[in-house]
Amino acid sequence: YTLVACPKAVYTLVACPNKCEPFMFYVYILQSLKDNGLYIGYTNNLKKRFSEHQLGQSFATKPRRPFKLIHYQAFVSQKDALETEKYLKTTRGWERIHRMLENTLK
């Protein structure tokens, strides 16, 4: 079952994920256990995407495996999620990440 938004903006559990839009969109931050570097990404299926990173199925992160998930944000709006991902990849966004996750990054 997947939590989805129907066309009338009613959220419900359904067994038809191919016919419906995902309910949540995620912006996430991974930390490489190899080099301690950070990776910021976006997805509509956080568990699947994290697994892809761990298995080396992402070209951008394959050489930096393994990872730990250190932060994520969930959005109902895909546009809000994409704009947040874009912002976090700016200089100000990186500064905010380091302030927000100060203790995690120690």
Task: List the SSEs and their pairings.
Layout (H helix, E strand, L loop, with lengths): L1 E4 L5 E4 L6 E2 L2 E8 L5 E6 L2 H9 L12 E9 L2 H11 L2 H10 L6
Antiparallel strand pairs: 1-2, 1-3, 4-5, 4-6
In short:
The protein has 3 helices and 6 strands. It is globular.
Q: Can you give keywords for this protein?
A:
106 residues, alpha+beta, three-stranded antiparallel β-sheet, 3 helices
Describe the protein's architecture and organization:
With 106 residues, this protein is α+β, with helices and mostly antiparallel strands. It has helices spanning 46-54, 78-88, 91-100, and strands spanning 2-5, 11-14, 21-22, 25-32, 38-43, 67-75.
Determine the strand fraction and express it as a percent band.
25-35%
Strand order of the largest sheet: 2-1-3
Largest sheet properties: 3 strands, antiparallel
Number of strands: 6
The backbone outline, from C-alpha atoms, is: globular
The CA-CA distance between the termini, in Å, is: 39 Å
What oligomeric state best describes the polypeptide chains here?
A: single chain
- Alpha-beta classification: alpha+beta
How many H/I helical runs? Answer: 3
Order of helices and strands: EEEEEHEHH
The helicity comes to 25-40%
Q: Kindly report the average pLDDT value.
A: 86
Extract low-pLDDT stretches.
1-15
| Rg on CA atoms, Å | 15 Å
